[in-house]
Amino acid sequence: MQAIFVIYQILNTIIYVYSFLIVIYTLLTWVPRLLNTTIGHWLAKIVEPYLGWFERIIPPIAGISFAPVVALLVLYLINNYVLRYLIIFLIRFV
Fold first, then answer.
1. How far apart are CA 41 and CA 56, in angstroms?
2. Exposed/middle/buried for residue 48 (C-beta within 10 Å: 0-12, 13-18, 19+)
3. CA distance to 18, 39, 59, 85, 94, per residue, from 27 (Å)
4. CB 22 within 8 A of CB 68
5. How confident is the model at residue 32 (pLDDT cuts 50, 70, 90)?
6. In terms of pLDDT, which residue wins out, 2 or 20?
7. Which of 59, 74, 85, 93 has the fewest beta carbons closer than 10 A?
8. Contact (CB, 8 A) for 44 and 25
């Protein structure tokens, strides 16, 4: 049972950090010169594959992409509902 809580905390932390990286990447896109830095390239390699799914589905409106907002919302829902109910389900059967 203790292992399930540790796994939950690790997954929760990973999702939180990834959400934070998406926010930083989104802020960096406002200043394109920052994307050409080492940190910008590193963040792009980590964040763009996930954001790419949403950018294909949600077209930019007036030049503004809402894909990061939807991507963060999906991570929030996974973290607060799917992951939580999965842990509760696992606890009941252990």
1. 21
2. exposed
3. 14, 13, 19, 32, 43
4. yes
5. confident
6. 20
7. 93
8. yes
* CA 69/CA 58 separation, integer angstroms: 11
How far is it, in rounded angstroms, from Cα 65 to Cα 80? Answer: 25
This prediction has a pTM of 0.91
For position 26, what pLDDT does the model report?
Answer: 94
What is the residue-wise DSSP string for 25-79?
Answer: HHHHHTSHHHHTSHHHHHHHHHHHHHHHHHHHHS--BTTB--HHHHHHHHHHHII
pLDDT reported for residue 93: 84
How far apart, in Å, are the Cα atoms of 17 and each of 32, 57, 64? 23, 24, 24
Predicted confidence (pLDDT) at residue 91 exceeds the cutoff of 90: no
